[in-house]
Every structure is written in structure tokens, then in C-alpha cells.
């Protein structure tokens, strides 16, 4: 899929048809996430991947009952790893760069999934401790986004966007 076509095709999908995601496609998505830029190339993030129904159910509960997380055949949880950024950038690295690293990796994963005809939705509303427990992550990492991945069972229309003139400021 051509890049700008991929951007136009991406939608937030909250209904999945239940077909499993092929392992090669998951690997391609993870490779794309790994290609994301990061502060000092430290990659101050971790990605937890689950295809296990029990884990996805726990993630859905931790996300306030967002059942589409359970229904998706796979979920990626992007977490910060602040200590990796602190080595080079101190507090700013811990508070900001680790979050940026994790979120840009998640964005790359979303676009890769779209290019592979898969569907995703960015989930940021969740109980951090519940998600950390669901994926078995240590206290040293902070979940910042859950990305359910699967084949869409819906085809929503494009959402309206603010015009570039409202958000772009030439200085």
C-alpha cells in the first residue's frame, strides 16, 4: 500500500472478525515499530505482545471493560522504559523521551498494520497497574498504549479532521 494511501485508510476499529493474525504479519508490525525513531536511538520502550485470550480479557478489564481488546486476536502493549532514556538524558529522558519513544513506535505499528490490511485502535484509557499486572511487566516500565490488532468487522467512514489551517502555524 502506498504511504499516503495507508494514512487515508487508517481507522480506529473497535470490532474484529475473530480471524487470527498471521505470525508473519505480527512480526512485520513489530519490525516496523522497531524502526521508529527514538531519542538517542536508546529505544526506551518495551512492547508486550499477547495472543492469549486470558491476557486480552485481563487487558479489557484493566481498560474499563473495553471488550474489543478481548475480541481482537492480538494486542500489543507499548510501555516506557524510563531508565534506558535516563542514562543519556536524565529526568527529561525519563519523563518525556521514553514516552515519545513508546508512542512513536506505537504509531509506526498502527501504520504497518493498516498497510497489511489489519485494523487497530489506540487505547490510552486504562488502569496502569491493572495493565501492568495483565502483561506481567515489572514496575520499572509504564504502559502508555494498548493496540488491539486484527481483521476489521466494521468499516467506519472517515472521521472529520480539523483543517490544516486550524492546526498549522507558519512562523
Primary descriptors:
171 residues; NADH Oxidase; four-stranded antiparallel β-sheet; 46% helix
Largest sheet, order of strands side by side?
1-2-4-3
Largest pleated sheet = 4 strands, antiparallel
Radius of gyration: 16 Å
| Proportion of residues in β-strands | 5-15%
Count the beta strands: 4
User: How does the overall form come out from the CA principal axes?
Assistant: globular
Order of helices and strands: HHEHHEHEHEH
Structural summary, described in words:
The structure is a single chain. The protein is of the alpha+beta class and 171 residues long. The chain has one domain: 3-Layer(aba) Sandwich (NADH Oxidase), CATH 3.40.109.10. Helix 1 crosses helix 5, helix 2 packs across helix 5 and helix 3 packs antiparallel against helix 6. The longest helix has 34 residues.
Compact overview of the structure:
The chain has 171 residues and is α+β, with helices and mostly antiparallel strands. It has helices at 3-9, 23-34, 53-62, 68-71, 82-115, 128-135, 164-167, and strands spanning 45-50, 74-80, 119-120, 142-150.
Give a topology summary.
Layout: H1 3-9, H2 23-34, E1 45-50, H3 53-62, H4 68-71, E2 74-80, H5 82-115, E3 119-120, H6 128-135, E4 142-150, H7 164-167
Antiparallel strand pairs: 1-2, 2-4, 3-4
Helix pairs in contact: 1-5, 2-5, 3-6
